[in-house]
Write a structure and sequence with these properties.
This protein has about 260 residues and is of the alpha/beta class. Helix content is about 45%, strand content about 15%. Strands 7-6-5-4-3-2-1-8 form an eight-stranded parallel beta sheet.
Length: about 260
């Protein structure tokens, strides 16, 4: 982490878990555990049907509510989709874009990710842009080429003044939900490369200011080591974000000097 230049953000990604009533219960428990003094921003990204409950439940806490997906059109005949303006109107601040599960199960591509980034920024949201490689791609030695392509594609056409509202999350696909975790060195290497890619696109000053998260099975046991890396500015947390105690343990790791 480097708080001198950029925000530290711990964001939970609930995926398809918890009901609206369970969201309220989670918030009540989290409120009793959260440290009063925090150096990091906390975000909870919930299923779309839980957003109103989450906005209400977290309103008196220093916790921002995020969405897990967004569509790139403002309105129209897109049954089942949710626009960026709809999310913004509810009080959503962040939105996850391009998560590997969206790419794997729902046909997300680098092109649609870019469209969603633009839609989110236009509505005033903060996109959390996910990039990452599969185990096969890592073993082929093409991790950096793939990451560069994903970053450049996602940010295509994004002006420098809007980039400051973007977050990039490196989530190695082989470490999501598998119990495997990239070593601190592996995670740091890719996060540093992401910052280098942004520097080539936008210059050093802007590259220093962008928050880059690690999103591959960060948990209480490894959070401090991962967050000690200078180019890892937080985490996009999966399973541990569903348990208030574990989520707070990670937040506490991010609040260490």
């Amino acid at each position: 982490m480097n708080r001198r230049y950029r925000k530290t953000i711990i964001a939970g990604n609930w995926k398809m878990n918890k009901t609206a009533s369970e969201t309220k219960k989670f918030a009540e428990e989290l409120k009793t555990l959260l440290p009063k003094a925090k150096w990091c921003d906390v975000v909870v990204c919930v299923p779309a049907v839980n957003i109103p409950a989450a906005i209400k439940a977290f309103k008196d806490m220093r916790v921002s509510v995020g969405a897990e997906n967004v569509f790139y059109e403002k309105s129209g005949a897109y049954t089942g989709e949710v626009s960026a303006d709809m999310l913004k109107d509810l009080g959503v601040k962040y939105v996850i874009i391009g998560h590997s599960e969206r790419r794997q199960y729902f046909g997300e591509t680098d092109v649609t990710v870019n469209k969603k980034v633009h839609a989110a920024l236009e509505a005033g949201l903060h996109p959390i842009i996910c990039v990452g490689e599969s185990l096969e791609q890592r073993e082929l030695g093409i991790t950096m080429e793939l990451i560069a392509l994903q970053v450049k594609s996602a940010l295509a056409g994004v002006p420098a003044e809007k980039l400051r509202r973007c977050v990039i999350a490196y989530e190695p696909i082989w470490a999501i939900g598998t119990g495997k975790t990239a070593t601190a060195e592996q995670a740091a290497e890719v996060c540093t490369f992401i910052r280098t890619t942004v520097r080539h696109l936008y210059g050093a000053r802007i590259a220093r200011s962008i928050t880059i998260q690690y999103g591959g099975s960060m948990k209480p046991s490894n959070a401090a080591e991962l967050l000690a890396q200078p180019d890892i500015d937080g985490g996009l947390i999966g399973g541990a974000a569903l348990k208030p105690g574990e989520f707070v343990d990670i937040i506490n790791a991010a609040n260490q000097e």
